[in-house]
Amino acid sequence: MNPRIALVLKLAALVGLIVFPSFGSSFYTEMVAKMLILGIFAMSLDLLVGFTGLVSLGHAAYFGIAAYTVALLTPKYDPANFWIALPAAVLAAAAAAFVIGLFVLRTKGIYFIMVTLAFAQMVYFIFHDTALGGGSDGIYVNFKPDATIAGWQPFNLDEPLQLYYFVVAALVAVFVFLTLVLRSPFGKVLVGIRSNEHRMQSLGYATFRYKLAAFTLAGGLAGVAGFLYAVLFGFVTPEYLSWHQSGNVLMMVILGGMGNLAGAVIGAFAFIGLQEMFADWTKHWQLLMGGVIVAAVLFMPGGLSALPGRVLKKLNQESKHG
Amino acid sequence: MAEADLQIRGTASAAPAAQGDVLLVADKLTRRFGGLAANQDVCLSLERGMLHALLGPNGAGKSTCINMLSGDLPPSEGRILLRGQDVTRLSAAQRSKIGIGRSYQRTNIFPGFTVLENCRLAAQSRNPRPWKIFTDALGLTDTLERARAAIVEAGLAGREQRIAGTMSHGEQRQLEIAMVLATDAEVLLLDEPLAGMGSEESAQMVELLKRLKQNRAILLVEHDMDAVFAVADTITVMVNGVVLESGPPEQIRNSADVQTAYLGDGHV
């Protein structure tokens, strides 16, 4: 698609997000906030899957670690300090990704998928089966982190509307950040690794280090999403780290179109939208969702984000022939 | 530079300008796969301004040898020296950094990228600050210029924006070499660059090789005898993992051992 058209569409979507709360009910505003947070989560995974060619099936681990960090940092009767809780959550997720990356990045292909899953399951059981994580019930985050500095409160996450706009701002920040990273020399190396890692090595790139940096960065950004998710819903459960969650975010990336940041966000919106719709019809919504994913992979190469471009191309061809 | 001058220097084994400038030395390289010695005590030396051809029938161990020199395969025994320094333990990426570049027998490029991006990535590996994550990669003018120069040198001028995977086989082979050039390699390890090329493309590649060897050291693995005798200054013949004979083209052409072992009647 023409980059200018793509930019206009993105700005239009942003305007839509900004005005949405004036039209939607608070129920839908919260749902859109959830979609946006999962959009950040999906973008962070897309950095690995779509751009570096690393299919991680354990990405929920970093999302969950950040969420639990907020929960554990929040005292029972007081809010946590926002300026400590957010960096701590993101750093905890990034540090876990760094350590796990040291091991899993030594494997390739199907083995990589398996070991990312295995490590994520280990993290899941740490929070599920030890006193630290409060078991399968999880932990309540009774108070949302407080951003007050020296008596001045720049924003108040207790206010649903302010929280919503904070999430929108976070999405924009992560999107811009990743766009810059991908256009940098570092980003070009990642895309080169996806295309032909062996050749990158023979051209002088120590690819392991680049992959580890990407894995750590993706873990940290998944941590941003995990932080926001815990704050939005006010509790954390081991389900956040489960392999269902890892599978869901991978499906969001595939549905939206791998290797496209906006696609990852679109994928998150589509996935949650369909989930809500199917869950209204039947409790076996996963069956329908599975069908949609299979259909998307078969009939929609490049995912939802590639759809407008493909339609335009088709129209162009027909107008040429006709 | 005069074409005639190149011709003379290419065909004759007369002393080139910078003779004696030894860049890469293989010292008794041995590689075993289980009980089989794919390479046994192989010695080679590559000098600046010289093209050293490696010949041998299939299975002689030529690819094993080039893989050890490039760092794709660790040797079981022996040493590899670059400008007198032991580089035996360095990875492929580290060897590329210090000036050893290689091309592959089976075309090994980034098929979905443009020719320019293929070479730009190669050139970018020489960028001293690859970790600056807020710089625009396409704004690194040094890198872009080096990539463009390599494209021109390899004879692909005008094809910068072509998608690599859509080009002809011969052009992809040229691109493979352009990528090595973009890394500023001084030692080129070229694994059958002429494989699968038509006669016209081969002739162009031979001319390219003659130009490239002027200020670099080249190891050429190749089956095309006419091409080898047209460009090589030294020829080493391998059979069953060992060096059978090594010397100037005339010596190899007239060697009875080589003829029995390898060249056969068809080639002489």
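qc> Chain B touches chain A through 39 residues (CB under 8 Å).
qc> done
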